[in-house]
Design goal:
alpha+beta; Diaminopimelate Epimerase, Chain A, domain 1; 2 domains; 18-stranded mixed β-sheet; 6 helices; globular; isomerase; Oxidoreductase; isomerase activity; Phenazine_PhzF-like
Length: about 270
């Protein structure tokens, strides 16, 4: 069985967010325990598993994502990585857009003429939340506001004072575990939008075995409405300021958020068991 490692939300190797991608030949998923074991072996923030669906339905491929320790309901970068593999291998021949059936609903990945892919995801329903006791201490920064992101991603979005504060965070990961269902999105406005991005973020998921995720597409379904409301524009660019870094172009469309980025295959090999 072929397994690929794809760097997503980047146009160069060894940047962005790496994802494992396995395209399955059968029309069903293998046992959940096996999927989880493979994801643990790959040991990236997510590994995507996809199998083809019969023609004529609402979707072309069924898609699931696993961290090294758990299945997740929504993942942006591994969806982008899967779309890249489908197009680069010819498995999506004749289709400009591929439809995926996932736990969070039907997702679409459309290939652009410039080589980028645009994902169509549900917009996170943001609601203001009380700042949890201890979250500032766990992050190591003063918190301006907190927002819940709804059931699909289950993160807590935390607004910080400025870009420098976001970049300088050295969280107590054990202290973050108690503060959200999935993880913490820390964000602030860009210090200098002339550099080509409007806001910065970092994402922490110690509950899922991922202290810091390099570039989190799903988080941008919450970041897009948050910053669009503040900046007064529907189309923005976010920079996830991790060590690997990556940019996500967002376009808000009411209850849908479009996420655009590129991907690069860095490993193509065989899974032997």
């Amino acid at each position: 069985m072929r397994i690929r490692i794809v760097d997503a939300f980047t146009d160069r190797p060894f940047a962005g967010n790496p994802a494992g991608v396995l395209l399955l030949d059968s029309g069903t998923f293998p046992d959940d325990a096996w999927l989880q074991q493979v994801a643990a072996e790959v040991n990236l923030s997510e590994t995507a598993f996809a199998h083809p669906l019969p023609p004529g339905g609402d979707a072309d491929w069924a898609l699931r994502w696993f961290t090294p320790t758990a299945e997740v309901a929504m993942c942006g970068h591994a969806t982008l990585a899967t779309a890249h593999v489908l197009h680069s291998t010819g498995a999506a021949a004749g289709k400009d857009a591929v439809r995926f059936s996932a736990l969070c609903g039907i997702l679409t990945a459309a290939a652009g003429e410039d080589g980028a892919f645009t994902l169509d995801f549900p917009t996170a329903p943001l609601t203001a939340a009380a700042v949890p006791d201890g979250i500032g201490e766990a992050l190591g920064a003063d918190v301006l506001s907190a927002h819940d992101t709804g059931p699909h991603i289950g993160d807590l979005l935390i607004e910080l004072a400025d870009e420098r504060t976001v970049r300088a965070l050295t969280p107590d990961f054990a202290g973050l575990v108690a503060h959200s269902e999935r993880g913490i999105i820390a964000t602030a406005a860009a210090e200098d939008p002339a550099l080509g991005y409007d806001f910065v973020s970092r994402c922490f998921f110690p509950r899922l075995g991922i202290d810091e995720d390099p570039v989190t597409g799903s988080a941008h379904t919450a970041l897009a409405p948050f910053w669009s409301a503040r900046l007064g524009r529907l189309e923005l660019t976010g920079l996830q300021a991790s060590a690997r870094s990556g940019r996500v172009v967002t376009s808000l469309r009411d209850d849908r958020t479009l996420l655009t980025g590129r991907a690069v295959t860095v490993i193509d090999g065989d899974l032997l068991t």
